[in-house]
Amino acid sequence: GLSTVNLNVGDSYSDAGATAVDAAENTTNSLTGISTVNTAVAGSYTVTFNALDAAGNAATPVTRTVVVAGADPLADYMTSFGLSGANAAGDADPDGDGQNNNAELAFGTDPTNGSSRAATLASGTGTIKLVYLQRNSGVTYTVKSFTDVTQSSHANFDGNGAAVTPVATNPQPAGVRAGYTQYEASVNTSGTRAFLRVKAVR
After folding, report:
1. Residue 165: what pLDDT?
2. pTM
3. Residue 131: is its pLDDT beyond 90?
4. Which stretches of 10-126 are assigned E, i.e. beta strand?
């Protein structure tokens, strides 16, 4: 089967399976994957295939990615919070927290709750860490560090700062919203000031 399968919400899905070939034992076996696919919810899912030979030796697991896309992710997301009409528009801010609905979708926050935050910042000895949710499909994220807070403004973001590579929290905490993954980005602050900012673009 394909390494990546693209579906729409509501589609039926029957996995194509995989085949394990053992040249030493001259055997070929069909495999059934361990699947997390839920076609009722937009997101990126994984099907994992494992194989053992006759001696019990495990092969390296292989995976298939299944991407389930909603017809309109923003509309689906707003509907899930009971919003419609003008309050469900991408540039609307029904909870008045300064984050429009496009940002609420990108960071998995509640567009009806002004205390729902897109990111949290934690400080330690010589480091600061930004923690936030990334949507598994349809949004591009960029994290940067800055030495001057004015450089991190929306207008100055693209031309300033140093790129920071975030990593997925491992293990993922309980309660992460379906279709999202929690990420962390850290920067060293020893002997200097530093600011972190994440930008999301749909």
Report:
1. 97
2. 0.65
3. yes
4. 18-22, 27-31, 34-35, 43-49, 62-69, 119-124
